[in-house]
Amino acid sequence: MIFHVSIDARDPRHVAEVLAELLGGRATPFPPVAEGSWLAHAGDDRNTMVEVYPRGTQLVEAPGDADALGVPGEGGLSATHFAMATRRSQADIFAIAMREGWPAKYRKRGGAFGVIELWIEGNRMVEVLTDRMQQEYLEAMRLDAWQDMLAQGDDRHRVAA
Predict the structure, then answer these.
(1) Would you state the torsion angle of the CA atoms of residues 145, 19, 75, 119, taken in this order, to the nearest 10 degrees?
(2) Domain limits for position 30
(3) Cys-Cys with 140: which of 3, 90, 112, 159 at CB 3.0–4.6 Å?
(4) Is the pLDDT of residue 8 over 90?
(5) What is the pLDDT confidence band of residue 70, given thresholds at 50, 70 and 90?
(6) Number of C-alpha atoms within 13 angstroms, CB side, residue 146?
(7) Residue 150 and residue 161: Cα distance in Å, rounded?
């Protein structure tokens, strides 16, 4: 199952609003990764979302113990990524990454939910969530929780670019 996908667009807000309409949900700002980003929430029981970044946003692997960064630019990278559920253990995921020679690291997004950043071929990120991480994600990414966080000006999910 896929929890969210990300795309880039010339007008992220408009695209997110149209996608949210199609999904039967709502669009909200998504400032943690790249300024001007928006989320299209489906409002379903899986908290399905589409992240919409400004055109040209690239996700880059951050050095050391840091989350991936969204930065403007043109190049071989992309903001496109997705979060996926797995029944495999964290150890299994890291073993697979090592076997393939792909970077991987555990991250706690905004202190709210864990993911394993798996960099396919070293340049395309997939967030892999174990059973425990999936439960954290489902609790943290509820539309009402996200709207409350935005209304309170809570920047705990914000990532410094």
Answers:
(1) 50
(2) 2-151
(3) 112
(4) no
(5) confident
(6) 24
(7) 19
List the structure tokens of 40: 């299209």
pLDDT digits (tens, 9 = 90+) for 135-152: 999 998 898 988 888 888
CATH number, domain with residue 112: 3.10.180
Token readout for 159 is: 């990532």
At 22-56, the pLDDT tens digits run 788 999 999 887 889 999 999 999 899 989 899 88
81 is a domain residue: yes
**Burial (Cβ within 10 Å: 0-12, 13-18, ≥19) of residue 16:** buried
The gap from C-alpha 133 to its chain's centroid, in whole angstroms, comes to: 13
Residue with tokens 């990532």: 159
